[in-house]
Amino acid sequence: MNGLERYSRQILFKPIGEKGQKKLLESRAAIVGMGALGTVIANHMVRSGVGFVRLIDRDLVELSNLQRQTLYTEEDARKNLPKAVAAAQRLRSINSEITIEEIIADVNLDNAEELLGDVDVIIDGTDNFSARYLMNDIAVKYNIPWVYGGAVSSRGMFAVIIPGKTPCYRCLFPDAQTGLGETCDTIGVLSPITEIIGSFEAMEALKILVGAPHNPNLEQIDIWYNSTMQMDISKGRNPDCPCCAQKQFDFLDRSSDKQVAFSALCGRDTVQINPRKKKPVELEKLAAVLKEAGTVTAANPFLLKFKPDESISMVFFKDGRVLVHGTNDLSEAKSYFARYAGA
Prior knowledge:
Shape: globular
Strand order of the largest sheet: 3-2-1-4-5-6-7-8
Order of helices and strands: HHEHEHHEHEHEEHHHEEEEHEEEEH
Low-confidence stretches: none
Structural class: alpha/beta
Mean pLDDT: 91
Helix content: 25-40%
Strand content: 15-25%
Number of strands: 14
Number of domains: 2
CATH architecture of the largest domain: 3-Layer(aba) Sandwich
CATH class of the largest domain: Alpha Beta
């Protein structure tokens, strides 16, 4: 079998076979986000023999990650290792015959084309909408298939996006959500649902790479309440979609009103997050969600003050603007914004 022995049980599966395995070994995948979904996806990609796997993440390993982020250990958390680095170290010990590239970065309009434009499939391991719209723009612009997935609480969903053949992400979800987004940090998440959704995402990515038919549905699963839903999206392309129909890549366009500006305020140890397209935030509902995740220290019709931990406080304004006090690091502020605003 000449170097394929480790994949022998996978090769015995006829839809893959030796031909498909060789395709995998010649393929390139990028995983955006190395949290709960990303670690599951990366584990499967590496063990399955995808020849090049790029791991992209901006955060460090924390103790609270270990409940569901399966590649990390207590030692990784003690050392404050970047997730991309810790994951790459673990995965190289599993399969040293492929190329694993770790990238410690926040995927944004400045680097997205460089990080995602040279692969055969993009796989979503993120936890926020803005990153997904950005991935969608890259996928459509460069004609790269990608697999969307998300999980929170006990439920999750996934779908396959094939530019030119399926609806794109913006066809399915025309409006980027801002504020009140449910995240793992506000309503929690169960480890089994991240394992399930991440495994489905990995499976769909492998199908894409070997040239097999993909799942045509948007699949939704709730493992606590034992419910599933399949929605056939194969005919769901929007003929007026700004992205896949009009080739208008708003999330790669610095002048677009879809952009969110992050700026450090001089001398204040504060980052201001300012969506260009203002959308009113329902502060009362936001307060109810955030009370479960930290301390709401003040609330009135104009703003909401929230303290997620001892070092950081956040101020949410009715027009969607947010101040993150306690840091001038844009990446750290962006992480807090994603955790508690879901965007």
